[in-house]
Amino acid sequence: VCTILENAKEKMLANHRRVGFNEECSKCKYLYICKTGCPFVKNTYKDNKSYTCKLQQELYNRTKVLLYLLR
Fold this sequence. Notes:
Layout: H1 2-19, H2 23-26, H3 31-34, H4 39-45, H5 53-69
Protein backbone atom coordinates (compact mmCIF):
# COMPACT_ATOMS: atom_id res chain seq x y z
CA VAL A 1 0.00 0.00 0.00
CA CYS A 2 2.82 2.42 0.85
CA THR A 3 4.39 1.86 -2.56
CA ILE A 4 1.09 2.52 -4.33
CA LEU A 5 0.58 5.75 -2.39
CA GLU A 6 4.15 6.91 -3.02
CA ASN A 7 3.81 6.21 -6.77
CA ALA A 8 0.53 8.13 -6.87
CA LYS A 9 2.13 11.06 -5.07
CA GLU A 10 5.02 11.14 -7.54
CA LYS A 11 2.66 11.01 -10.55
CA MET A 12 0.57 13.90 -9.15
CA LEU A 13 3.67 16.01 -8.53
CA ALA A 14 4.97 15.25 -12.04
CA ASN A 15 1.64 16.39 -13.53
CA HIS A 16 1.73 19.61 -11.50
CA ARG A 17 5.28 20.32 -12.69
CA ARG A 18 4.44 19.52 -16.32
CA VAL A 19 1.91 22.35 -16.67
CA GLY A 20 3.67 24.91 -14.45
CA PHE A 21 2.30 27.40 -11.97
CA ASN A 22 -0.27 30.04 -12.84
CA GLU A 23 0.62 33.46 -11.39
CA GLU A 24 -3.05 34.21 -10.68
CA CYS A 25 -2.97 31.32 -8.20
CA SER A 26 -0.23 33.03 -6.20
CA LYS A 27 -2.65 35.87 -5.44
CA CYS A 28 -5.63 33.66 -4.58
CA LYS A 29 -6.72 33.43 -0.95
CA TYR A 30 -7.82 29.82 -1.49
CA LEU A 31 -4.57 28.42 -2.88
CA TYR A 32 -3.98 26.60 0.41
CA ILE A 33 -7.22 24.65 -0.20
CA CYS A 34 -7.23 23.89 -3.92
CA LYS A 35 -3.46 23.60 -4.50
CA THR A 36 -4.05 24.87 -8.09
CA GLY A 37 -6.57 22.16 -8.88
CA CYS A 38 -6.52 18.53 -9.93
CA PRO A 39 -3.18 17.68 -11.60
CA PHE A 40 -4.81 15.08 -13.86
CA VAL A 41 -7.41 17.52 -15.19
CA LYS A 42 -4.82 20.30 -15.66
CA ASN A 43 -2.60 17.91 -17.61
CA THR A 44 -5.53 16.67 -19.72
CA TYR A 45 -6.55 20.22 -20.64
CA LYS A 46 -2.93 21.41 -20.90
CA ASP A 47 -3.68 24.35 -18.64
CA ASN A 48 -1.90 25.48 -15.49
CA LYS A 49 -5.11 26.57 -13.79
CA SER A 50 -8.17 24.51 -12.98
CA TYR A 51 -11.09 25.15 -15.32
CA THR A 52 -13.32 25.08 -12.24
CA CYS A 53 -11.39 27.85 -10.50
CA LYS A 54 -14.21 30.41 -10.33
CA LEU A 55 -16.71 27.76 -9.26
CA GLN A 56 -14.39 26.56 -6.49
CA GLN A 57 -13.86 30.13 -5.26
CA GLU A 58 -17.61 30.68 -5.10
CA LEU A 59 -18.11 27.43 -3.21
CA TYR A 60 -15.39 28.36 -0.73
CA ASN A 61 -16.97 31.80 -0.23
CA ARG A 62 -20.43 30.35 0.36
CA THR A 63 -19.10 27.66 2.68
CA LYS A 64 -17.30 30.27 4.72
CA VAL A 65 -20.51 32.30 5.07
CA LEU A 66 -22.53 29.22 6.04
CA LEU A 67 -19.98 28.18 8.66
CA TYR A 68 -20.07 31.69 10.08
CA LEU A 69 -23.89 31.65 10.28
CA LEU A 70 -23.93 28.24 11.94
CA ARG A 71 -21.72 29.31 14.82
